[in-house]
Amino acid sequence: MKGKILDGREVSKRIKESLKERIEKMKEERGITPGLAVIITGGNPSAISYVRSLEKVCRQTCVNSFVYELPAETSEEDLIKLINELNIRDDVNGILVQLPLPKHINPEEVAKAIKPSKDVDGFNPINAGKLFRGEKCLVPCTPKGVMRLISEYGIELKGKKAAVVGRSNIVGKPVSQLLLNKDATVVICHSKTKELDEELISCDIIVSAAGKPGFIKSNMVKEGAVVIDVGTTMVEGKLMGDVDFEEVIEKASFITPVPGGVGAMTTAMLIENVLEAMETYD
Ligand SMILES: NC(=O)C1=CN([C@@H]2O[C@H](COP(=O)(O)OP(=O)(O)OC[C@H]3O[C@@H](n4cnc5c(N)ncnc54)[C@H](OP(=O)(O)O)[C@@H]3O)[C@@H](O)[C@H]2O)C=CC1
Ligand SMILES: Nc1nc(=O)c2c([nH]1)NC[C@@H]1CN(c3ccc(C(=O)N[C@@H](CCC(=O)O)C(=O)O)cc3)C=[N+]21
């Protein structure tokens, strides 16, 4: 089977157009413009690529963006001080802190500092807890983008067996929870998983978020499986996914490319979350 491409770029283009219309209307009728603050500490290449993408998307959708590029040496205290300032600013509706954080900064303390109603990447334990319990909340952008892409292509999840590779708080765990909410049977795999190949080959859906370029090979994929590649690792200036695309497309029924797959959805979901934060939680 030669798989069909899940075209994140195309789907996100449609979503962004409709978000732009909503934002323009908001400006006309209420004289307000959404604002997003993004904080990046240090020079992680994949995070830099994300910041560049989302500056562009903010321009496309008429959202004000405030980017704070802080040095890797920034103290936890200074970072939290900045977050506290942003928490009370009226022109900032969403706050995104880019991961990974430098080693001396505790991500849990940072997550707790973000005001839940401005927490557009669902990072705060209040939002994470609500997601876990199936309550309405701000859902992390990448997992939300994965789910939207799956639903846009009419892919049924009920009763399907899904594997998630990775268990981070920002991708692996929330995407597993969202798949479970859609009645999939979910296996969460990580670096200590024994026989990863055996787990994956039995699955109808694979979502990989390990950050290991090219490590999902066709011998790990069941004929006709849906393969979603979240990985974005910069290798020699090129963005690489976790999946060996050329090999795996021959077996999958659907597959996401990198770039042009999940990453493109993530930025669209971020703008959607800024609007949601603005309209629902303030
Ligand atoms: N497209 C997008 O929009 C986004 C892309 N990303 C990308 O997704 C990737 C993952 O991000 P993130 O979740 O933050 O990363 P983390 O580094 O926090 O998590 C990686 C996870 O992968 C697991 N893992 C690592 N190696 C293996 C292996 N060989 N076999 C099985 N599991 C493994 C780790 O297991 P363990 O827990 O045991 O260490 C860990 O749970 C990165 O490439 C990142 O850049 C991230 C966010 C958004
Ligand atoms: N709190 C937090 N949340 C994140 O979601 C998060 C993060 N930290 N840290 C870094 C990673 C990486 N990430 C990307 C998202 C979109 C693109 C993206 O838009 N990529 C485009 C192409 C970009 C290009 O071609 O340069 C695409 O895939 O089509 C890339 C990378 C989000 N991350």
Account of the protein in words:
The chain is built from 10 helices and 11 strands. The chain has 282 residues and is an alpha/beta fold. It folds into 2 domains: 30-115, Rossmann fold, CATH 3.40.50; 141-262, Rossmann fold (3-Layer(aba) Sandwich). The strands form 3 sheets. The chain has a 6-stranded parallel beta sheet with strand order 1-11-8-7-5-6. Helix 7 links the parallel strand 5 (161-165) and strand 6 (185-189). Helix 6 packs across helix 7 (172-181). It is globular. The mean pLDDT is 96. Bound molecules: NADPH dihydro-nicotinamide-adenine-dinucleotide phosphate and 5,10-Methenyltetrahydrofolate.
Brief summary of the model shown:
The protein has 282 residues and is an alpha/beta fold. It has two domains: 30-115, Rossmann fold; 141-262, NAD(P)-binding Rossmann-like Domain (Rossmann fold), CATH 3.40.50. 42% of the residues lie in helices and 16% in strands.
Give a quick set of tags describing it:
single chain, 282 residues, alpha/beta, Rossmann fold, 6-stranded parallel beta sheet, 3-stranded parallel beta sheet, binds NADPH dihydro-nicotinamide-adenine-dinucleotide phosphate
Mean pLDDT: 96
Determine and state the CATH class of the largest domain: Alpha Beta
Please report the distance between the alpha carbons of the first and last residues: 49 Å
- Count of structural domains: 2
CATH topology of the largest domain: Rossmann fold
Rg is: 18 Å
Global morphology? globular
